[in-house]
Amino acid sequence: MNTTTLNTRSLWAYLQLLRPANIITAWADIMAGFAASGYFIQVDIVPLLWLLLATTGLYGGGIVFNDVFDAELDAQERPERPIPSGRASQTGASLLGSSLLIVGVVAAAQVSWVSAVLGLAIATSALLYDAFGKHHPIFGPINMGFCRGGNLLLGVSVVPSVIGDYWFLALIPIVYIAAITALSRGEVHGGKLSTGITALLLVVAVIVGLLGLGLLTNYQVLTALPFLILLAIRVLIPFIKAARQPTPEQIKIAVKAGVLSLIILDTTLAAGFAGFPYGLLVLSLLPISMILSQIFAVT
């Protein structure tokens, strides 16, 4: 095997570590938060671009370190992954993850000091989850949810003063991700009926919470309703199946649907705050993420 082939295989392995389909869902968080901030009416999109770069670094770095910390476990349960298969080194992955996290925080700092603080908090929370949180049945899902909730607020931070008004929006992805994370624990060996039911109830709570945003004066729930219905269809059906039959196969299907549907959740938020066309713009990320999910693993 020549050097070119080896380099290509190595590059592909590190791309697999990044899970590009998941990073696209993180972009949707930023765009939803951007809509809630009210800044979307401005002509200037430079802050949005900085925040998209920030979340790429933060999410990408966090997910790379997930595989770094799981290298020994993956060697037993998922030997086909880049690190245990030898296609990517643990040292190389650590350098990649560190570089991405630094880029994420620096990019966030270009927007505001609040954005920088949030970026640092997200990076710290991601590392905490990778190293310790994922092994805790209660703290783990909340920890992961905080990463996504913080990411949504990172989008809001383009107008720092608005965070004080809309901090509670972070609770929506926190609860949603907690549901996915709790369910995902059964991807390898299967799950428990109680866990599946809990995850399903958490998703229902998210849907009710999105409807509840209609109480806000600047959130148009009727505009967001078509996207909310789409979210309910795409997530509830596989989650119900996983709760009734908690096999690894059903759980993987439900988790994948839940992760990709983060974009629809963000679309629902974005449309309510910024209108139907902006919602469609966010939703346009879904087919991109779905295509990438056919090439790169999501979990």
UniProtKB/TrEMBL annotation:
Task: Report whether Transmembrane helix shows up as a keyword of the record.
Answer: yes
Specify the protein's topology with respect to the membrane.
Multi-pass membrane protein
> Superkingdom of this entry's organism?
Bacteria
Q: Which residues cross the membrane?
A: 21-42, 48-69, 139-160, 166-184, 196-216, 222-241, 280-298
Main location group: membrane
* Keyword tags: Membrane, Transmembrane, Transmembrane helix
The protein's location, in the record's own words, is:
Membrane
What InterPro entries has UniProt attached to this entry? Prenyltransferase_related, UbiA_prenyltransferase, UbiA_sf
Keyword check for Transmembrane, yes or no.
Answer: yes
| Protein's name in the database | UbiA-like protein EboC
User: What organism does the UniProt record list as the source?
Assistant: Anabaena subtropica FACHB-260
